[in-house]
């Protein structure tokens, strides 16, 4: 079996994912806009490419894990895009957080080109990616899911199948990111109420995240909010805002009045508008946002 | 040791709590506005009283678990209130969800009367109370906490101490109820987005509540929202709204701008204003509210 | 001078506008998807055309007053679009409520075709259009504004120049529609508070709209809200929602955290999601929305 | 006729109101916490009193124009309150912005004391008070309204009668202040959208406030928001927040889900929580609030 894969996108998530693929024995033809990012990977197991097209040459699978819809579309259809070289029957495993509409469009484009497309967005922070603890949501053609299984298992702790409609997994991903944002707003308000009433943020956070809310999101994100410490920047507020925009667009398109989606969108937009989109983590948009409004 | 306790309030939570005390060997002098509620309890272990004052006679501990601030205050200070008969040094264990301000006032009233007061609100639905799985939050004088320990342990799975300021535990309780409401709004919006985009509410709920949000609130409340089934009415929307009002008042008093507290308050107020305060569970305020707005 | 104009779009606003142009001595080459709409106009003064292209033949000015961005773009660039026949130097006066982005794109398209484009959206309900009381906001090239002046004056009571950036007038129009929505929400909440506190909605509305808020929006829209009477349907909720989406998109694109824009968007989206987008006026989205939530 | 009146409260509004009463020939027995405030008034026409009780001695009318419910109640029922000296049949004209509940309580207290009470809150900024342009809303007993007429006319441009329920005028006043806050939020968001899209705030404000929104609130308040100049501090953010709290409490008590009331309350609470309650005008809470969130 051919264990060569094209891997495009060496960001905070992509890099640990690539490492896990290498650990599983795959050889990666990597492409990243900033080439130096590839230096972190074991050099014997990779071939650094100068264009997406070059990375996609001669492989059965192309993985993309990129920042937004426009970038993914450009990587596929651009002058040096993967469609230029992907062989018939090869599969594009699209792991970025993008809109279901873009996913559907990419499917159509691939079909026309004789290639395949699978939506496979993931849940997990960089440390979860490193620990092979990502959750992978997939949707699309059964065939595609089956053929991608080993590769996806090499990066995550579980694959969840959301059906044959290609955009389905993207909807789940945007919905989940909204739920995380809502949890961040919830904790930021709750712990600030506690603080301003003379309680210890940390004790209150510990209580809730070990009882009623004893789950990864409230525990892992909650510790930053409890401590009012938003370093390091693992997921930029700017990227969080992008997801909030996609979630909001989804509610508009599918006609779901969702005031909480609006609220978390406004919170992230504020962080970005204040010029902190690049310099702060999305958790800070909520934690700092509520604290500043409360004057503490 | 005197194992006689006054127990006031046989509602959905009070009744299973009383049963656990009886199971632990206590004899209860019970008072409830609707006397017939006492019929559920083992008759040999209780003495049914016709006033709070009568219930409080000759005991070291008076437990109240009632619907709101006004009722608790009346039970303490009314013409037939417990202060009329409580013996010097006896302790009032106040387990209702009330405002920290009322708690502080009750403490002052008790101090003047030579009796003691402990704030000990609980987290848990009726089934948790029945299973002795309540979490008990306490705040107040160390002495009072120590003396109440055995009694509280007979009703819950853990006691968490939030310090010496009497209102502290009440703040934690209101904060926690806000967090639950926020989780309900989050799930109601999220699962409706999923539904209107062609996904299965139940599958999406199962995924999130077994991974990122694998915790009691998202699991236990989430199953009602996923199924759009809000029966039976375990906690009336009207009572949920009362808590939302207390939470909102808390943000105003302690000056915490908290748009999500406002949002969940509006959701519950809508349910009440529509005449469904008594006939529906608070979960329905969120689940039905979002579904109706979305036309599904 | 050639007094022949192409006029495209005979909706609730377009029809009275066309009548005023006819009254001012213009001959109109009209196009409307539903041809029968042209029967309302004086037949001697119009030529009914079967395509936009046919309407645009041989004229110096093409007016469009249509429902949304997609329709305007199709009318311009479609297979039977006006670009097919517009003569060099002719001017497209674009009076629909569309996004500034679409306006800029249309300008670029026209420039390439050797034709011109002027953004000229209007404020006013159908009765204002009939009374020649529209306010016309313009932005774009000075030359274009000058040449359109007589035509615009024949339809409105004033032309306001918002500069050379083509999208400027579109921004003003979306901003103004947001302000109207905000006034509707304000009145709906205010008069319902009055009502539920035993006051007369009408008296309260009369007081405010003749003193602090003595202006067209609070007077003309307020009378519907005061009377809880939202007939006839002058501007469909669906179209109001379209404008709310454009306004929301504008805040996202230009990075203005605007919770009130979100709130009014949610109100209109709710009306649409409930299936009342076509059957109710946008005023009803606010008036009925608040009343229903309040149970009155 | 006895033209002596007790006048209590020489704040930003009270002082010009007192001046107008003096101009109309009344002699005022004035009381103010800070005595020096009385120096602004014509000394021959006033008697400076050291307690409310002293001011209320021997007069038929006592006017109060104070900051909040607690202060008004204290002025009436306190150890040196007006009830100590008011003669039977004398009328308390209560012009402060207070809750309808407090108004009803004061009525009951006065009735028991053999004195009368009239709710007569006013609309208008200090400059309107100086120009005798206040709008006076009254509610209560017909007799009381009739006897107060001349006095009220000496301070305002019109008296509007909101019926016999004493709290009615207070509801109207709170509702109106909410409407003003909503207009402030509307303008702040609208003009910031305009600004961030390259338009001139001032031009956009001028357009709207001379056409669709040509009314005092949009004109007088709008000029501050357009210019981003919130000086001088005519009405402190802290007092605006007090009104927003009363309005919010009103929606809770009368069960009107009102998300816009929540939104404006949050805006003012944020200003206060940030420590700007005393140093900034309530207009700034909206104008600065939106600008800061938008990073401009």
UniProtKB/TrEMBL annotation, chains A, B, C, D:
Positions of the 6-phosphogluconate dehydrogenase NADP-binding domain: 4-160
Alphabetized Pfam families for the sequence: NAD_binding_11, NAD_binding_2
Domain 3-hydroxyisobutyrate dehydrogenase-like NAD-binding span(s) in chain numbering: 167-279
Listed InterPro entries: 6-PGluconate_DH-like_C_sf, 6PGD_dom2, 6PGDH_NADP-bd, HIBADH-like_NADP-bd, HIBADH-related, HIBADH-related_NP60_sf, NAD(P)-bd_dom_sf
Keyword vocabulary terms for this entry: NAD, Oxidoreductase
Transmembrane domains' residue ranges: none
SUPFAM superfamilies cross-referenced by the UniProt entry: 6-phosphogluconate dehydrogenase C-terminal domain-like, NAD(P)-binding Rossmann-fold domains
Domain of life the protein comes from: Bacteria
PANTHER family in UniProt: 6-PHOSPHOGLUCONATE DEHYDROGENASE NADP-BINDING DOMAIN-CONTAINING PROTEIN-RELATED (PTHR43580:SF8), OXIDOREDUCTASE GLYR1-RELATED (PTHR43580)
Protein name in the entry: NAD(P)-dependent oxidoreductase
């Amino acid at each position: 079996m051919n264990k060569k894969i094209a891997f495009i996108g060496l960001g905070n998530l992509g890099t640990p994912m690539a490492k896990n693929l290498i650990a599983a024995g795959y050889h990666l033809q990597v492409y990243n806009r900033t080439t130096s990012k590839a230096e972190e990977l074991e050099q014997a197991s990779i071939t650094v490419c100068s264009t997406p097209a070059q990375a996609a040459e001669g492989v059965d699978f192309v993985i993309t894990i990129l920042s937004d819809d426009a970038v993914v579309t450009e990587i596929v259809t651009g002058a040096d895009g993967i469609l230029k070289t992907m062989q018939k029957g090869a599969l594009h495993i699209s792991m970025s957080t993008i809109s279901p509409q873009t996913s559907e469009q990419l499917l159509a484009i691939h079909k026309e080109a004789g290639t395949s497309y699978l939506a496979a967005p993931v849940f997990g922070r960089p440390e979860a990616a490193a620990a092979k603890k990502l959750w992978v949501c997939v949707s699309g053609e059964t065939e595609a899911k089956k053929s991608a299984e080993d590769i996806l298992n090499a990066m995550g702790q579980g694959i969840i199948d959301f059906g044959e409609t290609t955009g389905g997994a993207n909807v789940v991903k945007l919905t989940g990111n909204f739920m995380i944002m809502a949890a961040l707003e919830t904790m930021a308000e709750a712990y600030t109420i506690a603080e301003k009433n003379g309680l210890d943020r940390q004790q209150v956070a510990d209580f809730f995240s070990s009882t009623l809310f004893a789950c990864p999101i409230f525990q892992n994100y909650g510790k930053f909010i409890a401590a009012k410490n938003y370093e390091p920047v693992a997921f930029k507020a700017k990227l969080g805002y992008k997801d909030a925009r996609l979630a909001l667009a989804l509610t508009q398109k599918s006609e779901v009045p969702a005031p909480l989606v609006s609220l978390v969108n406004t919170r992230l937009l504020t962080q970005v508008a204040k010029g902190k989109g690049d310099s702060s983590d999305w958790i800070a948009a909520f934690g700092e946002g509520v604290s500043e409004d409360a004057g503490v």
